[in-house]
Amino acid sequence: MRPVLFYVFILIFLGISCKTPKTSAEASENASNSASQIQGIVGEVTEMIGNQMPMVGAPAPAPRPLKATVYIYDSTHISKVKQIGTSPLFSMVSTRLVQKLDTNEAGQFSAALPAGTYSVFVLKGEAFFANQFDEKNNIGICRVEVGKQTRLQITVNTDASY
């Protein structure tokens, strides 16, 4: 039981981590794009699917990059969305859409934004995915500070079992 809890903790920790590893030639391309961007969000969207339970002698499954559409809204409280059951999926977001953009094939994206607090969602089918909340029940919160880039790692795990 303890190894299972350890792996669940590690997955949660990685899910809320804000650092994104750069890989391949796209990393250098993305780095040059990021260098020209003064402030905003730089991130990566990955997906976990299937059985994520740890198995003796087998490596832990790794998330795969996900080509997706990212929606950035003004800070969104749980009362401003229509949630689908108890899932991390939402059929409607009632706050102002700030920016909509697509990730590249490696799941990477960047958005130049004014300083402020935003909610970041990933389109999953016909619904918006976000599984992180702050202490005030704001969804998918990302804070952008003046002159800084905020790194964001989003792992879509609606099709994973733990």
Structure description:
This protein has 162 residues and is an alpha+beta fold. It contains two helices and 13 strands. The chain is globular and about 45 Å long. The chain has a single domain (2-161), classed as Immunoglobulin-like, CATH 2.60.40.1120. The chain starts with a helix and ends with a strand. Helices cover 17% and strands 44% of the residues.
Notable characteristics:
about 160 residues, 7-stranded antiparallel sheet, 2 helices, about 45% strand
Secondary-structure topology with pairs:
Blueprint: H1 2-16, H2 24-36, E1 40-51, E2 64-65, E3 69-74, E4 76-77, E5 81-83, E6 89-93, E7 97-102, E8 108-112, E9 116-124, E10 127-129, E11 138-139, E12 141-144, E13 149-161
Parallel strand pairs: 1-13
Antiparallel strand pairs: 1-2, 1-8, 3-7, 3-9, 4-11, 5-6, 6-10, 9-10, 9-12
Can you describe this structure in just a few lines?
With 162 residues, this protein is α+β, with helices and mostly antiparallel strands. Helix content is 17%, strand content 44%.
CATH topology heading: Immunoglobulin-like
CATH architecture call: Sandwich
The averaged pLDDT comes out at 83
> Order of SSEs, N→C?
HHEEEEEEEEEEEEE
Q: What's the structural domain tally?
A: 1
State the fourth-level CATH superfamily.
Carboxypeptidase-like, regulatory domain
Describe the main β-sheet briefly.
Answer: 7 strands, antiparallel
Termini distance?
A: 13 Å
Structural class: alpha+beta
Uncertain stretches of 5 or more adjacent residues = 18-35
Strand content: 35-45%
Helix count? 2
Helix content: 10-25%
What integer value in Å does the Rg equal? 16 Å
Shape: globular
Number of strands: 13
CATH classification, class level: Mainly Beta
